[in-house]
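Work package 3, deliverable 3.1, input record:
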Amino acid sequence: MAETVFAPWTDPQQKPLIQFKGVTKRFGDFIAIDNLSQDIYAQEFFALLGPSGCGKTTMMRMLAGFEAPTEGQILIAGQDVARVPPNKRAVNMMFQSYALFPHLTVWDNIAFGLRREGKSKAEIEPRVAEMLRLTRLERFARRKPHQISGGQRQRVALARSLAKAPKLLLLDEPLGALDAKLRQQTQFELMDIQEKTGTTFVIVTHDQEEAMTVASRVAVMDEGRIIQVATPPEIYEQPNSVYVADFIGDVNIIEGVAHPQADGYDILWVEGRQPLHAKSTRSFSNGQRCFLAMRPEKVAIGTEEPETRNKVKGRIIDIAYLGNLSTYHVEVPGGRIIKAQTANTRRLSRRTLTWEDEVWLSWTETAAVMLEE
Amino acid sequence: MRRLILIAVPYLWLLALFLVPFLIVLKISLSDTAIAIPPYTPTLDLAGGWAAFKDFLGQLDMENFVWLTEDDLYWKAYLSSVKIAFFATVLTLVAGYPIAYAMARAAPEWRPTLLMLVILPFWTSFLIRVYAWMGILSNEGLLNGLLLKLGLIAEPLTILNTNAAVYIGIVYTYLPFMILPIYSALEKMDESLLEAAEDLGCSRLQAFWLVTVPLSKQGIIAGCFLVFIPVVGEFVIPSLLGGSGTLMIGKVLFEEFFNNRDWPVASAVAVILLLILIIPIILFQRNEQKQREAEG
């Protein structure tokens, strides 16, 4: 029996924890958030992903209470929070800069929020100890923030924001300051902690890999709007627009004209060449402009002509060797570059493809996604 | 070798301009007053050789210091100076903190201008500015004129030549020394700390007491010492703005020196003043050291 998949957004019975209802936020003339509506469910790990200035941080600051929406409503657990100041919300935030109090020890930093609640010493002590254990900081309790490493500081910030057991935890680029290795490790720790505590996490990030790794759902944002909200595999495999396809990972975009056929669409992409063929869940009219989005790892590369419908002959002009993977930049008719990626399962000496080689690129009918814009 | 020279320069500077003058003052404080030029004996005569030097040492004594304990004018003046300096420091802090806070919170493009405005009074001679206060605070002065015109008072207030005028003068003069270190501490503060405090359940006021004040502590301490230490020995302000009731050691020292022409007693007063100030100076140094360590 497979485990039931966590997907409250597919269940109409579920009540969302957070609701954005037609929220607009303006700073002077600048529209940071543009008439945005979105539900986020309890125990979700929700990622807001987008380039800087897309409004993701503004959304988070509105949840924390540091900014108020210009128009629209934000509901947390069904309650409109417009007039609730940050210190009265059951929401805690982990700041990008960590914002640890430099004059307090690690222990006092974590206890800070609990003390403000007027809890007794007997209640605070075990809670702080629990947080220190959770974030593996027991040995550093008596140190000041400047006496510990960046990764440890990041964990103190997390422990401090979790100490009050908030309904909702906001993480603003939490791993931005860590190096790649530590980042990866911490991403898994974050997921682990999220699962253990059952807290709803909303994370803001511009790093698509991070969003894909940790999140239950990813919202891709641009210019104050959410372009697509979906699980990481859906976002990657079925982007709804060229923007999303291009933002998440590497992609080949081929522009063409769609012609419906019995078993999908023929796409005319270069004058006088065999049209490409693709299946699509979207429908296109005859002669409609379309874009084929195709991940490089789904494009096969070889020296022999393959027996598939989608095949293009080209010449290798560049090879990006990444160790485990190699990406070939292949120039095809019309001067277009198509990227093909292969896993380097064989040793370098056994591989035959090199610069200036004539090669065949091929892919299946379902490998590419047809997009309207 | 280069390092040695580099270190030697400030030490030679201190030796020539601080330690040597201090030793001279110390020597005078151990001498006796005399009607001569200079007005004390003995004077060192190196031409006389070793015997003359021994004779010179033999004539030095602690007489003047004993005198300071016998006349209660002196210890009262010391005590009064410390008291006035203490309250003036508190007043300067109360006036200076909000100014520093407002400056640190001002839009970044305004900060250099505000900083300039704080430093601007230094462009005018200190003496002239204190004289200006005499014009403001006197019975026929600007302040009384204004208050009378507004009908707030019927009789002119006597402010000049009282301790109140001394406090006003000190707070006015030393305000920049309080503002600048506090401003520099507050300006460095990361604003997200206040947001974090609010996020964790603080009201704005609590966040101020629990985060802003502790983080500007070093600035407050530095500012207080920068005001307190020079104010204890302040002479110009009490003598121009204060009255006969204002007792400050700086004034006593001046009178001993110039009115009584008693250089040895005046020197003894100065030596004791220095000893009194050594304690706060050491505390100040330790505070600076601690701050450097915290930042390092």
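The first strand of chain B starts at residue 32 and ends at 33.
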